[in-house]
# Entry
Amino acid sequence: MRRPAVLLACLVGLSAGCHHGLVYDPGPKPSVGGTIAGIAMTTDETVRLPGRQISAIEVTTGSRYDSTTASNGGYTIKVPEGTYRLEIELRAGEALAKRPDRTRVNNGDLDPGRDFVVTVKTAAR
# Structure
C-alpha cells in the first residue's frame, strides 16, 4: 500500500519542478531618487519659519512632493530622479527674497542648502 505515498511524492516533485506558464515581469524598477533639503528663514537669519509647506515640483511631469518645515525651519523631501522647481507657502505680508535654483536629483543624491529667504513686511504705525 505504498502507492498513495509514491503518488504524493510525485505530485510534490512536479510542483517543485520547472514552471511552464507565464512569468510576471514587473518591468523597469522605479528610480530610487534622492533627497532635497534646506531651511526656510526670514531676512533676519535668526528667525526661522516652522510649519511651512515646501513643494518640489518635477518640471517635466508636474509631479508634486510636499514636506512641512520643522521647528528650526528645516525640511527634507525624498523625490525620484528628475529636475525640480521648489516653492514655499507664503502668508499675508510676506514676499520671497530668495528661492533655490532648479534642482537636478540623481539616484542617491543629497541636495542640501536649498534655502528659502522670506521678507516680512512690517505694518506702518
Q: What stands out?
A: The domain at 34-120 is CATH 2.60.40.10 (Immunoglobulin-like).
